[in-house]
Amino acid sequence: MSAVEETDVLIVGGGPAGALLGFLLARRGIGVIVVEKQTSLERDFRGETVAAPSVVTLRRLGFGPALDAHGFLRTEGVTMRMEGRRVMHVDYRRFALGEVPVDIPQPALIAMFSDAAAEFPTFEYRFGTSFTGLLRDGDAVTGARLRRRDGSTSEVRARLVVGADGRFSKVRHAAGITADVQHMARDFLSFKLPRPADWGLQAELVVDRDRHLVVLPTFPDFLRVGHNLPKRGLGALRAAGFEPFKAGIMALDPRLAPVVAEHLNSWDDTSFLEIFTAEVPEWTRDGLVLIGDASHTCTPILGQGVNLAIQDAVVIAPVIADALSTAGPVPAAAFTGFVTERRRHKAHVTSFQRLQEKALATGSTPGVLLRRARYRLLDALPLKYRIFGGVLNAPHGIDPADLAVAAGGSRPGLGV
């Protein structure tokens, strides 16, 4: 027979959104259990860039000492090169936030959140625990069924279940919410390389007609390289052979040729990512809410996933706390404002990503010439900082009051 437990909030998914939300709720004295199907955090994450506004938010939440103690890599700007010519450069240090994007391993970031939360008696983070189904009372969600790696099962009854389990969310599926998946024309293959000593701290977008590389400095001393390929084109790429693939990378950016030749040895060194966005028509049920990629999947362009997740957690924490002041499952209506606000911000990000993807997918000679001319013109105008700042540094809708430590819940290093 399954064990039965009770808590205020059950969060399914222990990534950045789930772990940070768990901390924010536990700090308010709310009972919260975070469950994560993986047995540890020691796995590879593709997106590890924390945008400048998110760095500001984390420091105001009190995580500055932990960030500094672990270490991170500052990303000082981005350079775009098209058909062998530099066409644009954005210097992140020119923005007025006082921070630049940083690269830090997501396992370290998640550990910072969960370690801070573990100091509160109402918090628990469980590795190796999978979600298997929702508990219901009529139409209201009242908890979830869980299974550990050893096969044991349990039921956790909660006034709110939070689905923070990513782009293929099982919680979303169990709730009967169908995502409208919109595929991009291309997918991505990524890999890591040692960072050459003279590379600097700039991200690079290297484009040749409809082929491109995204090259990101990665903590502590790597480059993360993303290479586009046609949708459903992985099979053909592999059939053509690994050496032609390597040759294509080196031709796109000859600066990478020495490290590619030495360190990129087989398909096992690469990681495939299917590129799509997902529009989710409903984010809530009575007793349930979706956050992060479970509710608004974005593409990897500009690395917005982890940042949207952090924003979601900070914005929704006070909403949940207020909603728990009344008895019973948290009603879906409690999240109307949250959903409206976050959907608007996500749509802004996605529209910019689609414009970027459309420009990068251009392969015809007239299109390539026009694209290059547009970027060079934009580079010459101060307007580029307003355009990029509108996405990279867009307001999060975070009330400064939401960043204050709950009364009686402060501890050294986590005050504001």
TrEMBL record:
Stored InterPro entries: FAD-bd (IPR002938), FAD/NAD-bd_sf (IPR036188), PheA/TfdB_FAD_monoxygenase (IPR050631)
Keyword Metal-binding part of the UniProt annotation: no
Gene3D superfamilies, sorted: FAD/NAD(P)-binding domain
Alphabetically ordered keywords of this record: Oxidoreductase
Sequence ranges assigned to domain FAD-binding in this UniProt record: 6-185, 273-329
Keyword flag Oxidoreductase: yes
Protein origin, superkingdom: Bacteria
Any one GO molecular function term: FAD binding
PANTHER family xrefs: 3-(3-HYDROXY-PHENYL)PROPIONATE/3-HYDROXYCINNAMIC ACID HYDROXYLASE, FAD-DEPENDENT MONOOXYGENASE
Name of the molecule in the record: 2-polyprenyl-6-methoxyphenol hydroxylase
